Amino acid sequence: MIILAIAIHILCAVIWVGGMFFAYVCLRPSVPGIEPPPERLKLWSRVFSRFFTWVWIAIAGLLASAYWMVLVEFGGHAEIDLHVHLMEGTGWLMMGIFGFLYFRVWPKFRTAVAEGNMPLGVKKLAVIRKLVATNLAIGLITVVLGVTGRYWG
Length: 153
Ligand code: HEM
Description:
The longest helix has 36 residues, at 38-73. This protein has 4 helices and no strands. Helix 1 (2-30) packs antiparallel against helix 4 and helix 2 runs antiparallel to helix 3 (82-114). The model has no long low-confidence stretch (mean pLDDT 97). It is mainly alpha-helical. It has one domain. The structure holds protoporphyrin IX containing FE.
């Protein structure tokens, strides 16, 4: 069971953090110049719509595997190492940022794109970009914490 839990945990982390890396580092600099400009916003709207579904699946898998490990395998919060406490903190921070992005910013972006309101779409995309950059940075740190923690935690 621990092998299954770790496998689910790591696959979900790879999907979420790897997806943000691809979006931010590869796709973002490739989109400027694609004409006409509204097409760029439509592309982002479609990309996010698919990616965010996977982020929800990844969050569900991360939480289920994480709390199974903490509560069943490791014997509760009192028993876990420092790196798991830190991972729990950064993990919830990432989920909070994603929740804000998904429920507060994404609907406004999606509606702006659907209604052809370019200025609003560009504004909301800039907010999404900052939130994704923040979560990418925290996500990379979290992965390093998770993998290296057993040697120092
Ligand atoms: C609610 C938040 C989370 C909790 C309670 C949690 C819990 C855990 C636990 C108990 C382990 C096993 C640690 C060990 O064997 O020493 C682990 C490993 C790991 N976690 Fe998390 N985790 C959380 C969120 C995250 C997130 C958001 C990510 C990345 C996006 C992540 C990435 C990892 C990685 C990469 C490992 C190492 C797997 C390995 O090499 O064995 N975790 N986590």
